[in-house]
Amino acid sequence: MAKSALQIARASYKPKMPKALYGQVKIEEGKPTQSVADQEEVKKLFPNTYGMPTLKFVESNEKPNYPVMNVGVILSGGQAPGGHNVIAGIFDGMKNMNAANRVYGFLMGPGGLVDHNYKELTAELIDEYRNTGGFDIIGSGRTKLETKEQFDKGLEILKKLDIKALVIIGGDDSNTNACVLAEYYKSINAGVQVIGCPKTIDGDLKNEMIETSFGFDTACKVYSEVIGNIQRDCNSARKYWHFIKLMGRSASHIALECALQVQPNYCIISEEVEAKALSLDDIVKDIANVVAKRAEMGHNFGTVLIPEGLIEFIPAMKDLIAELNDFLAHNQDKFNATPKNEQLQFVAQNISAKNAAVLNSLPEGVARQLTLDRDPHGNVQVSLIETEKLLAEMVKTELTKMKGNGKYNGKFATMVHFFGYEGRCAFPSNFDADYCYSLGYTASALIASGKTGYMSSVRNTTAPADQWIAGGVPVTMMMNMERRHGEMKPVIQKALVKLDGAPFKFFAERRNDWAMSSDYVYPGPIQFYGTPELCDQPTVTLKLEQANK
Ligand code: FBP
């Protein structure tokens, strides 16, 4: 395999870990836990894994005799930088306990477990992937692991390979399913433990015990580098407004973090749009006002950051999408049989008049995108909706109106961008390389302690890595009941941007100044070698959140 100089250098990087994990560990138990909400319902559904205590690993002098144990690993959902290091951490942790332990990877996501597609992860293979981006060592997928048939089918291969523990590396939905699997295997005495690891660049799997999901750090740094470069281009060429959509299926953490890193002229936060019940028109008018004010200074350029999930947070759009989801779920065949150029009309005639009016008000391309196939979790595939183009076009129309009223006198030329896939498989930053390896190593310690239904947790992450705290959190602790596909289900509570949280407040206090300023911040590329100030800094979001604890 051809390798770049950086690939060769990164192969020998030794990730930093919490001090306790370098030697023998013992467990310190916290208090029994409760789910974040709906305690009675969640308890009833998880009689075997509810209420367990939080765990912390501390140094110990005893060296237990670890029996031989095989472990399985699954990568689930969207790629996130550092996934390979989680697997390397699990591998090293298991091998350090007993050199005869084996690690198997199930291929292309949870589907690999059900379909019995796997490979053994050898030392040579792991060494090829240390500190690299991507999930390609075993691939990932979005198959939902949720039925008893799937669990039983999975158990067949786990028994065949003598696997005693399974680590599922995924986001909130995948970890919810991991917990249901842990509960089921425990209830039938299957002899298989299930441990989760918090992954997603979206940053929306976090809580009191999980400070951040892995991949968020690297992805935001990659996007911020490129936005910074665009801002320097703005200041040099002085002729374009850049409309930049950023990944984050639902929450706006990525957009907010990038805004904190680069100080753009405008950044939309979906959670604020929803809280203030803003319409698309309100957002467009607000951006147009900023454009007009900057034009008065002769600054016909700037940056607008748009979170990917925005559409679903605009109340009128949310209602429309909910009705479309329902309508298409029941009428997909009729929809598919309708000639392409009549499909939108077919939908509009069969949904409520209010939602049909919203659908008809959208540019055809966007309306069409809203009727596209849903993902396996029933979500609109927001990454396919071109909100950056929609907003750029709508702002242009608004400015033309303002020009007519004498309220704008500038030039408006736009460039649109979507940054998502560019950052999902990047070389993990030192933070993610260290954090992921530590999460994996902690997962192996949880396995050795016989735990199931826990998520690997590494805390105190704004301190140097040797002061990080490794432990485990019962997944049921993060759950509440939510309506999904018409049924109440136990799910891990998604962490959206908190409007009273420190990162949003910091942004809100400064955004008016940033709107008029061209004194942008240019973060530059991720640094891997140099001083900790340059290479090991966590995200601004994490620093602000932890500083306020
Ligand atoms: P996860 O929540 O599975 O980590 O995926 C996050 C994400 O990258 C989103 O930001 C984006 O909307 C989505 O995946 C894109 O999905 P796909 O990879 O199927 O295009």
Walk me through the structure.
The model has no long low-confidence stretch (mean pLDDT 95). 44% of the residues lie in helices and 16% in strands. The protein has two domains: 36-215 and 428-484, Rossmann fold (3-Layer(aba) Sandwich), CATH 3.40.50.450; 216-424 and 501-519, 3-Layer(aba) Sandwich (Rossmann fold), CATH 3.40.50.460. The strands form three sheets. Strands 1-2-13-12-7-6-3-4-5 form a nine-stranded mixed β-sheet, with helices on both faces. The chain has a four-stranded parallel β-sheet with strand order 9-10-8-11, with helices on both faces. The chain contains 22 helices and 15 strands. It is α/β, with parallel strands linked by helices and 549 residues long. α3 (83-97) runs parallel beside α19 (430-448) and α13 (315-337) crosses α15 (353-361).
Helix count from the secondary structure assignment: 22
Low-confidence stretches: none
Q: Order of strands side by side in the largest beta sheet?
A: 1-2-13-12-7-6-3-4-5
CATH architecture annotation of the largest domain: 3-Layer(aba) Sandwich
Q: Which small compounds were modeled alongside the protein?
A: 1,6-di-O-phosphono-beta-D-fructofuranose
Highest CATH level, the class of the largest domain = Alpha Beta
The termini sit apart by 46 Å
Give the helix proportion (percent range). 40-55%
Shape: globular
Count of distinct structural domains: 2
Main beta sheet: strand number and arrangement?
9 strands, mixed
Radius of gyration: 24 Å
Secondary structure category: alpha/beta
Looking at the structure, the CATH topology of the largest domain is Rossmann fold
